[in-house]
Amino acid sequence: MTDPRNSLRQALCRTDMPKGQVTLLKYLYQNQGAVTTEELANGIRGGDIHSCTSIFGPFSQRINNTTEISGDPGYRAIIHKTQNDGRTYYELRDEARKVIDDIPRLLNEFERDMDELRNETNPVIEQNEFDT
């Protein structure tokens, strides 16, 4: 049986990581607890909700195209999404947080200023930079 942590690590490290995915993970990693769509958009896309939510499609493909992950969980393998009182909330899953804790290259990017990351050219992290 495949270790779920290894599967999540493989999903995060198997290919280049663009700035949208880095900023998404950085924001959720650095915020304990759930954040609204609006908070997430303000934090990573200067308030542009459409630009913010458009990151989830490619991020889901990253997860679903990982051979070690069965089914099609998409971004929900990493991020917990809930709805309450007509608002959508996102939170990094505990298991995903533990996996990220073991990826120094990604944590290094989390130390950078969000504005600097948003202005970065893609990819922010090349696949060969991950210690896999």
Please describe what this structure looks like.
Strands 1-3-2 form a three-stranded antiparallel beta sheet. Helix 1 (4-13) packs across helix 6 and helix 2 packs across helix 7. The chain has a single domain, classed as Arc Repressor Mutant, subunit A, CATH 1.10.10.10. The chain is mostly helical. It has eight helices and three strands, in the order ααβαααββααα. It has helices spanning 4-13, 19-30, 37-45, 49-53, 56-64, 94-101, 104-110, 114-118, and strands at 35-36, 79-84, 87-92. The model has no long low-confidence stretch (mean pLDDT 95). Strand 2 and strand 3 form a beta hairpin. Helix content is 49%, strand content 11%.
Task: Please supply descriptive tags for the structure shown above.
single chain, 132 residues, mainly alpha, Arc Repressor Mutant, subunit A, three-stranded antiparallel β-sheet, 8 helices, 11% strand
Short description:
The chain has 132 residues and is mainly α. It is 49% helix and 11% strand.
What's the β-strand tally?
A: 3
CATH superfamily: Winged helix-like DNA-binding domain superfamily/Winged helix DNA-binding domain
Biggest sheet overview: 3 strands, antiparallel
| CATH class group | Mainly Alpha
Query: What average pLDDT do the residues reach?
Result: 95
Assess the beta-strand content as a share of residues. 5-15%
Tally the structural domains. 1
Low-confidence stretches: none
Task: Briefly note the CATH topology name.
Answer: Arc Repressor Mutant, subunit A
Helix % is 40-55%
The best one-word shape is: globular
Termini separation comes to 19 Å
Note the total helix count. 8
Radius of gyration: 14 Å
What is the name of the CATH architecture?
Orthogonal Bundle
If strands are numbered along the chain, what order do they take across the biggest sheet? 1-3-2
